[in-house]
Design brief:
Strand order of the largest sheet: 5-3-2-6-9-10-1-11
Mean pLDDT: 96
Oligomer: single chain
Number of domains: 1
Low-confidence stretches: none
Largest sheet: 8 strands, mixed
Bound molecules: 2-amino-2-deoxy-6-O-phosphono-alpha-D-glucopyranose
Structural class: alpha/beta
Shape: globular
Helix content: 25-40%
CATH topology: Rossmann fold
Length: 252
């Protein structure tokens, strides 16, 4: 696991976008795993800029988002479908049928989970997975306690996540209580992973991800067992790490 500390959120966002762009340059038909939330917004802004400047071609890329709320239609302003359209998809040349987000309105959610997982595997698994992290250590919506062997599944949001995400919905009451998420096993099959974290709220989760025991109580700690993970964090999120010149390599 490698940890790289950016001086601030803008630098973090640029580095994240450069990592995605490098992946696409190296393999123009890459399969990307994408994240939502506040943290990757700067990365999407940078990717949009690169595309507008003619430096990024997504014509052959496929994308799979990590998660979606259950019960929110694609046009709901807080659905992850809508987030992806507004912040990324509509600004770049990614063909619509190559961009995938789980359907939280599917009549049979178990079938939808299986369909989504099979699509990822049929695409050859994810080449580069972008992750954020919850203050409670969740990745995707894999909350503390989720078994590491889970593939795409339906889950209940942790009360801490409902509280954290209320800022997007106006109030806690409006936040859906369930979601579909890629499982930890799905995420761990990715060939490369970058995890982005910004702000002091994430500092404890980052410390426990890097140095703590691997435990389902801190889902992101499983990343210690993945062979190719880079944590891109800003100084605030790295506050509890002992770093040497802004970089850290941890042999797990
Ligand atoms: C959300 C998403 C996660 C995201 C995390 C952190 O609930 N399901 O994929 O990484 O929580 O979000 P933020 O970046 O807004 O802090």
């Amino acid at each position: 696991m490698q940890v790289i500390v950016a001086k601030d959120y803008d630098e973090l966002s640029r580095w994240a976008a450069e990592a995605v762009a490098a992946q696409i340059l190296e393999k123009p038909d890459s399969v990307l795993g994408l994240a939502t939330g506040g943290t990757p917004l700067g990365m999407y802004r940078e990717l949009k800029r690169m595309h507008q400047e003619g430096k990024l071609d997504l014509a052959r890329v496929k994308t799979f988002n990590l998660d979606e709320y259950i019960g929110l239609p694609a046009d709901h302003p807080e659905s992850y479908h809508h987030y992806m359209q507004e912040n990324f998809f509509r600004h770049v040349n990614l063909p619509a049928d190559q961009a995938h987000v789980p359907d939280g309105t599917a009549g049979d959610l178990a079938v939808e989970c299986q369909r989504y997982e099979e699509m990822i595997q049929a695409a050859g698994s994810i080449d580069l997975q972008v992750l954020g992290i919850g203050a409670n250590g969740h990745i995707g919506f894999n909350e503390p306690g989720t078994e590491f062997g889970a593939v795409t599944h339906v889950l209940s949001l942790d009360p801490r996540t409902v509280k954290a995400n209320a800022r997007f919905f106006g109030s806690e009451d409006q936040v859906p209580r369930q979601a579909i998420s890629m499982g930890i096993k799905t995420i761990m099959k990715s060939r490369k992973i970058i995890l982005l974290a910004s702000g002091t709220d994430k500092a404890e989760a980052i410390m426990r991800t890097v140095t703590g025991p691997v435990t389902v109580d801190m889902p992101a700690s499983i990343l210690q067992l993945h062979p190719n993970v880079t944590l891109l964090v800003d100084k605030a999120a790295a506050a509890f790490l002992k770093l040497d010149g802004g970089q850290m390599s941890v042999n797990c």
